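FAQ: What does the model actually see?

It sees only this:
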Amino acid sequence: MIKNYKVIKMTQIKWVYNFDDGNSTMRNLLGGKGANLAEMTNLGLPIPSGFTITTEACVYYMENQTYPDMLNEQIIDELKIVEAKMEQELGNTDSPLLLSVRSGSRVSMPGMMDTVLNLGLNDKTVKGLAALTDNKRFALDSYRRLIQMFGTVVFSLDSEHFEDVLTEKRNEEKVKFDSEISVKGLEDVVDKFKAVFKKDTEMDFPQDPKIQLDYSIKAVFDSWNASRAITYRKIENIPDTWGTAVNVQCMAFGNMGDDSATGVTFSRSPVTGEKTLYGDFLVNAQGEDVVAGIRQTLPIAELETIMPEIYKEFVEISDGLEKHYKEMQDIEFTVQKGKLYILQTRNGKRTGAAGVKAAYDMVGEGLIDKEAAILRITPGDIENILFPRISWHTPQKKVEIDSKIIPVETIGKGLAASPGAATGKVVFDSDETVALASEGESIILVRHETTPEDVHGMYASRGVVTATGGLTSHAAVVARQMGRPCIVDTDSQSIMRVDIKNKTIRSGDVIIREGDFITMDGFSGKIYKGELPTEKLSELPSELSKILNWADSFAKLEVRANADSPIDNKRAFEYGAIGVGLCRTEHMFFDEGRLPIMQKMILADNKEERISFLNILFEFQEEDFYEIFKSAEGKPITIRLIDPPLHEFLPKEIDLVTEMFEMRLEAKDELSEAQQKELQTKERLLVRVQEINEMNPMLGIRGCRLGILFPEIVEMQAKAIFTAAARCENKGYDVHPEVMVPLVGFENEFLAVRKVIDRVADEVFSDTGIIVDYLVGTMIEVPRAALTAGEIASGDKGAEFFSFGTNDLHQMTLAFSRDDAGKFIAHYLENKIMDSDPFETIDQAGTGKLMQLAVKEGREAKPGIKIGICGEQGGDPASIDFCHRLGLDYVSCSPFRIPIARLAAAQIALKDK
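And it is asked to produce this:
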């Protein structure tokens, strides 16, 4: 609540401010538009006179559905001041004052709320305006506009009823534009518009201008709660309690003839950020004509030819406003009978690329400093730059293909889990995706949900769509890591249905079969039929790279990458990562050539047999780590020992039973020797699968527990790490391995695994004659580890670094499954049970307290301990803010989120300063 109106006497509250009385610091009270109009008035710019009714008045009106006391009186007082300045009077038949009534929220909500223009015209004042201007056509044109706008805005009449009248008149007079309708024709249009108004409202069009004003102010207040405005506020996280100001301003007329015009122009290109005027205008028109697209607009550059003195003045004003506000400006203007008026200025909405270039250039121009440039850029700007997007001809409606404008058909919608756009053939199987991609096909992998067994298919695909899952499901997390667009949960979000068995997607009457093209938009979550054009940047724009380098000099948090391969490393380091904070070794075993060996190792009946298969896997692992260390170029690499639930590497029990049944059915009890041997193998496999089956495998034999039960697995991985490191050092590469022990909950778990790691390291260094410095630490992902962090870090053999695995830490702390929580988290958020999704942003009040305790205890036990975060929240700006306040050393995130993390780390440090 802004104020307690029951306590404050209404006579003490100033509800209305003349433009002369306000300034840009009063944005919360006057709204963005009102504050800027007041500021420009104080700067001496040509602003039509007016006044602003405050946001507080709107809040009162929304709560009570009536004006607060004294508002009417204050409106009348300010109106008299405007009338005196203009030497015109509202309702005067000889010298009528005409007004515009516009909304103005604290932040720009373009097109979301209502406007009424030409207010004050009636059957008598229209004649006075015609005589005053010696332009009957202009007066009638303004009157018909008022009747239509007043009807649609104030009384929600169907605009088509008015448009039908205009269309009929244009056809009758055989003209193309409304501006070409004759005076006699406009007289007829006005009469018919009044008839439409009376028919649809059962009342005459109001002839009293003060009644028109009252209706219009209330209509603007009411538009704050229009459905489109509510939807926009939800998307942009604008509080419902802010309300909108109302700006009542003298009309400036761009429709008074060929020496009049109206337009909207940016002080720089909102597409590229180039320092050049960008916009369009119309001669002999009003503002809505430019927006409606009824007439072909002219580029702003042509104003220099048509009205050279006006253009020169406008350029000076545009430059002056940009220097004053130190930001790209979006300026509305009108030229009335050869005189320029500025109707509005605001910070221009622009693409990410434009925002970055403009900020960089403004530093060079001396308008802003480096700190301001860093603070100005948003994470959305960087996302907008980095990921491919659909090449829209008309946003969300049409694309241009082979010089033809093609309409787009939407078949479904889901949660936009990973940004970017992709087009390709639908494939429902990961192996098939790999096969087709290897032949050069562009594939969209569509699954009911993904598992680690789909990683190869996800990597080979251009994008991933799943019927279920949330924003931090496997598909979402891995797709973001890979830089693939991903849309999840289409079943709940739309009528689209994925049928894996029959290899189809159904959406109403539309059926998409395997091999058909679809296009997915990871920015909006929408899925389209057919192959739409996409575009992307191959590297960071130079301006962004330079700004991020500035950012690094201010940030206290370093940024690392979650990367599992040399390719991921290369991308991460190009984006500015100072090392790898999480290399997940389990992802290395799902390769087609390794998975069978991994399965045999898991199914081995004894240690000797298990070691024989581990020796084979060692050859793969040592080469993996060698290439990873080489690609690191001296940067630290944190390698997490294998951490999968074992069942993820094995066939499903139901699949084995089905295969065995089908073999017997097909052979009809006459199995060949080869079939009998295969059946026996499957039977043994089934027994083993049943033996290791766990009711809750995510809390079963995984992480350090696997290494403690089977230390030979730790031995193999440690030997591979240190052999590769020694090999690199021998070839002149600088290597800094950090071995991470996963899922530790007890000090003795860590010590048991570290003992094996250190023993193997000593053996390798002794055999090779090369000693490599290394660290051994743990991932804090079990609540008990956070509570006993001091014990885990204590002593010479205690953990030398902590890395918070916030995905699992949230799961165990909240008792939420991140794969299943999507079914209720949306409901929780909608009903304010939670403020944010804990799998996107750290739950500071709960999980955050565990992290805080772990940092405190860890640093007390080992003052020099390095502490970071490698969960998916490591790329979230709000979480980075929290990590900064915790005093962490680094955050680690997927390669494609590194630029955002670098920016966020600097912004937080600057704001903190």
